[in-house]
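Q: Structure tokens for this one, please.
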Amino acid sequence: MHMQTGIERVRLETPYPEDHVNAYLLFGDPLTLVDTGLPFPKSLAQLEAGLARHGVRFADIEQIVVTHMHLDHIGGVAPVQKASGARIVVSEAARRIVELGEEEHRRFDAFYAAFAREAGSDVRWESRIWMQKYDWHDVVYVRDGEAVRAGGRDWRVMYVPGHSRTDICLVDAEGFAIVGDHLLPTISANAFVEPPVDPSAPRPKPLLDYRASMKRTRALDLAVVYPGHGDPFTDHRALIDRRFAEHEARCAQIRRAMDRGATTVAEITRALFPKLEGPMVMLGLSEVQGHLDLMESRGEVSSAMDGEVRRWRLVAEVSNNCPQ
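A: Here is the predicted structure, written as tokens:
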């Protein structure tokens, strides 16, 4: 797909299942880089080489847009800014992560420890696996609906929480959309459980947020979508409808696991993802919790605390086969 859009993709290898992550170069004023790969020497070398193929050096970049605060998207931000003095554009929801560093790590880690305990799991999750404090300066925090000038055109910012609390998309007047991990063509992005942006708020329900964000994106007329992993694609509505269908299939799986006696998020996770181990168990717990939130919002399940652990049960009207 090589129209003269002024949007060039740079593919960077990652050690994760997605195997590549995309950075995008937006030609025009200001010369903008969207996302930057991992903070490892190999990834930075690939970023440098990828930009060089378009005649661009780190020092030439005038602006860096961050779609969300995951390590495979923010790794090159500091080195590129150091070389260029580029300003950084990121969601307002990322302000605490960027500005507080270690203090925010500790809040995240405490949140995950409590989440695991309530789920009935002993998984250990270190937030610094994917959050690192970088020495960023000249940061512009953007909110939903604001405009960002990049690559010679105006982009509208959409705040689309779900995959993370910090996700934004950029959409221009022609229907080009740069979406990070909000919409991915080949894998369904995890709606990852995270602490609330505001520490005093209750736990977010990321899958419900994600579905609401996708409903907003679905309503847009988009020409080409540029994702954080995989190839640019068209027909985003078909993709979103497929994701919604996957949510229903996952809810049905959870219902079956509960019918067979699973009551905690950890038990359901083991039934659905028996091969997950180590910190990766957290991804499974997150996936199950998100779908339980969805089922709870529809009155299909309810829960109560049993000591330190939360137990879930099917509400009778839905399961039809277990009278009260």
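A few notes: DSSP finds ten helices and 13 strands in the chain. The mean pLDDT is 91.
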